[in-house]
Specification:
Number of helices: 13
Oligomer: single chain
GO molecular function: ATP binding; DNA binding; metal ion binding; ribokinase activity
EC number: 2.7.1.15
CATH architecture of the largest domain: 3-Layer(aba) Sandwich
CATH class of the largest domain: Alpha Beta
Protein name: Ribokinase
Keywords: ATP-binding, Carbohydrate metabolism, DNA-binding, Kinase, Magnesium, Metal-binding, Nucleotide-binding, Potassium, Transcription, Transcription regulation, Transferase
Strand content: 15-25%
Family: Belongs to the carbohydrate kinase PfkB family.
CATH topology of the largest domain: UDP-N-acetylmuramoyl-L-alanine:D-glutamate ligase
Number of strands: 22
Number of domains: 2
Strand order of the largest sheet: 11-10-7-14-15-16-17-18-19-21
Distance between the termini: 44 Å
CATH superfamily of the largest domain: Ribokinase
Helix content: 25-40%
Length: about 475
Amino acid sequence: MITKHHTKIYCLINEQEAQSTTDFIEGYRNCLYDNGITFNPLYVQSVTQDYSINSSILMGLTAPICFNESIATTLYHQATQKNLDVPRDLSIIALVDHQTSNSLSSHIATINTRLYQFGQYLAQDIIMEIERLQLSQDILLDEYTVSYAENIHLPSSKIVPKLLVVGSINMDTLIHVSEIPSTGITSIAQSSKNVIGGKGANQAVGIARLGLHVSLLGRVGRDQEGMLLYDLLLKEKVNLEHLIFDDSSGSGRAYVFVLPNGESSITVFLGANRNLSSKDINLHKNAFEHIEYCLLQTELSTDLVLYAAAYSKQFGVKTVLKPSNIQLTNLELLQYIDYFIPNEKEAERISGGLSSLEDQATYFRNLGVKTVIITLGEKGCYLQNSENSLYFGAMKFPVVDTTGAADAFISVFTSSLARGINLIKAIKIASYAGSFSITREGAQPGMLDKEAYENLLDNIDHMITVSSRNENQCIGL
């Protein structure tokens, strides 16, 4: 287990056999010590006579070693009931004797204690002592070996897909209004509050909540908002080693006017985001190493996004682009984009006014994009690549706030691809995520967590329609 980089290794013993497990625990402690791992007494757990196990130990556990096969079998069944995959999420080793056959050999590794052989050794030792003969060293036991060692996997922290978001980070002010303010008119807001925002931050949080490793490359001011943004992103488990504190500009801000129907209008002050440059990308070269996807948005300058996309390709990284404003001043960028995800208005404007979704997507693909997904709000989305031209429906949820629906879609879509899920299913899950996100106020509160995402995997195929024609179908829950 240690050679597979596990450090959260529990020792599970039978409380009825406490005396016989003393040496077992001591060996466990010594092994940890020899490998530089601190012994934690909380990691030694006793199970009851009926082999019931406190399910709380499954939280954070990656590699338990069980005193016998009964404990291991019970743990296996409890883990699967918690939707954990054994051995992908949990690598279990059980001690067994020579007569035990591992009924879960496709899931659990075993170590044969060879008690019968050890008994033979002791009996012969006694006989030799009585007859005053020297015990042959050839009778000594061989080294213990692990059977079904293929069931010991790397911990998820070592194999989880890694993604990078290069994008904006803002402090959003949500302002609820009855109508968008007009020139010369003073309007009264019903309420307002500050939340973390910016498409870069939103997408990074959406990915982190699904349990994937995501880094965020961006800038915040060295001000109160910047420190708050840092703390909030850190709590969301976003890797911030590539976050830059800007000494010359304050943190970015966005003012989001939310109408009663949930639609919104956004005004953005870029602040420190404006200073993110190609020099920053060069200085943080290691951010692009060993990642699978890089997510980009054009809230930053098109030239910077172009540089980041081309830079990603030097490392063989797949790129995802959300054009977050109508203008896309340098179409050369699209030749470096694997997944281009505009909304209806953006697709029409950037394509020069082409009216049909099919023509718009073809236009973008002719410029070098591999896959085009045009999001259609409550109507779903349209996919076009070299193999498919398909329309996807959407779920029907009550609208509270549409802010961040595209970020929810993109974070779930990219995370699904990174996990090895096929394109069609990834779009279905993303369509659900985008629809669900509008049921909460703000961009991030409505984003799926890992548990909700996992629950969707087996059911999503029956929830979202797919058609070769634009039927604009929605399905209610």
